[in-house]
Amino acid sequence: MDRFLSSAVNNVDAKGRVSIPAAFRQVLAAKGFRELYALQAINEPAIDVGGIDLLERYEKRLEAEDPFSQTYSDMSLFTYGDGAFLKTDGEGRISVNDFIRTHTGIADRVAFVGRNHFFQLWEPAKFEAHRAEVRARLSGRPSARGGSESAPE
Q: How far is CA 145 from CA 45, 90, 136, 153, in A?
């Protein structure tokens, strides 16, 4: 497995740690990631989490910008100022610190949401509301053939 797929909700323990789902830990191990790069999502109350490749994607995008432009300045702030490294302990847990709590509203439970090459941390009720909005948008979206799309039965 080389993708972050599915979602799960885990409890935050008394020391403020949460276990990364086993399937996600397998992806991290397969990719050799010991340290996790995390940043506060722009349009969602979520934290994007991945390996160093996630940071490198943003850095590659920054390289394409004029270093004196507003876009470069904004992206630099987003990539570095809103980013942090998270460490996992020997049991696959991360600390739910202020960096995470402030942006997400997470208290005692964390929704882990697979997003292919990265995953997100959400407060579970906010994630369920967001998921409902996404499903509503997708279910009402016209297809390329002119009708509305629907999932196969």
A: 34, 51, 19, 19
Structural domain count, the chain: 1
pLDDT digits (tens, 9 = 90+) for 16-30: 999 999 999 999 999
Contact 148, 142 (CB under 8 A): yes
pTM of the model: 0.88
Distance separating alpha carbons of residues 110 and 96, to the nearest angstrom: 9
Among the residues of the chain, which ranges form H helices? 22-31, 52-63, 70-76, 98-104, 124-139
**Domain, as residue range, for 56:** 7-139
15 in a domain, yes or no? yes
